[in-house]
Automatic annotation (TrEMBL):
Region (Disordered): 424-454
Keyword terms, alphabetized: Aminotransferase, Pyridoxal phosphate, Transferase
Any GO MF annotation of the entry: pyridoxal phosphate binding
Highest taxon of source: Bacteria
Family: Belongs to the DegT/DnrJ/EryC1 family. L-glutamine:2-deoxy-scyllo-inosose/scyllo-inosose aminotransferase subfamily.
SUPFAM superfamilies hit by this protein: PLP-dependent transferases
Coiled-coil positions: none
Cofactors named for this entry: pyridoxal 5'-phosphate
Protein name: Glutamine--scyllo-inositol aminotransferase
Protein's organism: Streptomyces carminius
Any single GO BP term: polysaccharide biosynthetic process
């Protein structure tokens, strides 16, 4: 009854009354955990703000590494300064020859692909399944000769890493998980990050576990773990001695590294935030189930399909897919219309990587020599699954799910109202360069807006 009334009401984007009272606040993000101030203050007065300085008691970085290894059910965790550098060192640790191919999904944040270039390798973009937003064995081209595959757990759905591994292992392909958006998700009880040979995480501001900037690689591989340590600390590892006022990192130098170390303030903050994560998952996941039930009553609208084997969600963003879009509308308009109804930011997925302006290796001299291979391997390829989701989904940040059940009613009511909404005028098109070197028309509505980061 409420929904029927809403379907005929004037849209907020056209000056009508919004579904949600503009004075009702949404949960804020990020939310400091209990104990965060104490953790940060302890570092402030510790006399040690970096792992590369002389020892003065226990490092927060070592403490966080142990806690996060336990959380992900892995033997080793090597913290890094960003999720991007976690991906770089994970790939470098494999010791692959320069210019080898690495399979990357066409729908992900650009860092999944740029990290491949930074490791001296060439990303080969593969389409995603439009039901899940993730790679699937059926979306892989068996003719691509690759040495590694990065399985991204996208938005709130996990890629089927066991099936992907089974599909590519006979060809000697190593599976690396990009779990930047999936801290705490589980597949048949196994935590995200523990299913591939290496798992990479981001702790950037918008992630469910955050220290503003930060990252980590986890693995069960005892051979790769010390290499990862060196790769992120300029060829240094933790030495066997723990003497006060003596450097803890020693120059083992088996493989040339870079400085990708996590600072002590970020590490201390992560120790506190990790204690809050599962409680926040419980609230978000309860709200997600509620929204899922409410949206089931709205024809043509769906959430991503969650594989039955994924027994715990970790939602980073929640895509709401309109199949079909409202009459004569595009999803940029839908995002604007929902933002106006709800008073929170609803946005479209990023441009798929095959035509993303953020993935242009020819603009960077150190990487440009790989761009010819990159362009060549993508010639003539299409990505209907990624393009479909990029054109039909709108996203809500996970923080919108940290509040009350009433918030879900508001979201569902706004979706029902907008799903029947009219089309704005003034849409335009622009041209972008594709990875195959051609131009393609891409639809962009006025004031198109996407998330600032991944
Ligand atoms: C899927 C994915 N991979 C990699 C990254 C890179 O992480 P960071 O921004 O911490 O470098 C992000 C997040 O930004 C991401 O969402």
């Amino acid at each position: 009854m409420v929904m029927t009334r809403l379907r005929t009401a004037r849209l907020a984007i056209d000056g009508g009354a919004p579904v949600r009272d503009p004075h009702t606040p949404w949960p804020t993000w990020p939310q400091p955990a209990d104990g965060a101030v104490e953790e940060l203050t302890a570092v402030l007065h510790s006399g040690r703000w970096a792992i590369s300085s002389p020892r003065r008691g226990e490092l927060a970085e070592r403490r966080f590494a142990a806690m996060f290894a336990e959380y992900t059910g892995t033997r080793h965790c090597v913290p890094t300064d960003h999720g991007s550098s976690a991906l770089v060192i994970a790939l470098e640790s494999l010791g692959l020859p320069h210019g080898e191919h690495v399979i990357v999904p066409a729908l992900t944040w650009t860092a999944t692909a740029t990290a491949v270039f930074r490791a001296g390798l060439v990303p080969v973009l593969a389409d995603v399944d439009p039901w899940t937003g993730c790679l699937h064995p059926d979306t892989l081209d068996p003719d691509v000769d690759a040495r590694a595959l990065i399985a991204v757990h996208w938005a709130c759905v996990m890629a089927d890493v066991p099936a992907l591994s089974a599909a590519v292992a006979p060809r000697g392909v190593t599976v690396v998980e990009d779990a930047a958006q999936a801290h705490g998700a589980r597949w048949q009880g196994r935590p995200a990050g523990s299913l591939g040979r290496l798992g990479c995480f981001s702790m950037q501001h918008s992630k469910v576990l955050t220290s503003g900037e930060g990252g980590a690689v986890v693995t069960d591989d005892d051979t790769l773990a010390p290499v990862l340590e060196e790769l992120r600390a300029d060829s240094r590892r933790y030495g066997p001695h723990r003497r006060e006022r003596v450097l803890e990192l020693v120059e083992t130098a088996s493989m040339m590294g870079s400085n990708f170390c996590l600072g002590e303030f970020a590490a201390a903050l992560l120790c506190a935030q990790l204690g809050l994560l599962d409680r926040q998952h419980a609230v978000r996941n309860r709200n997600y189930e509620r929204l899922s039930g409410l949206l089931a009553g709205i024809p043509g609208v769906r959430l991503l399909r969650r594989p039955p084997a994924q027994d715990r969600l970790s939602m980073y963003e929640v895509p709401i897919v309109f199949d079909p879009l409202p009459p004569t509308a595009d999803n940029t308009w839908v995002a604007h219309a929902l933002s106006a109804e709800l008073g929170t930011r609803v946005y479209t997925p990023r441009t798929p990587l095959p035509r993303s302006p953020l993935l242009r290796p020819w603009t960077k001299p150190a990487i440009a020599p790989l761009s010819e291979r990159f362009t060549e391997v993508h010639r003539g390829r299409t990505y209907p699954g990624a393009e479909y989701l990029a054109g039909h989904a709108v996203l809500l940040h996970h923080s919108a799910f940290l509040g009350e059940g009433q918030d879900m009613e508001d979201i569902a009511n706004a979706v029902a109202k907008v799903a029947a909404g009219p089309r704005p005028c003034g849409a335009r098109t622009h041209r972008t360069a594709n990875t195959d070197g051609t131009d393609r028309e891409a639809f962009v509505a006025p004031e198109a807006e996407t998330d600032g980061h991944d």
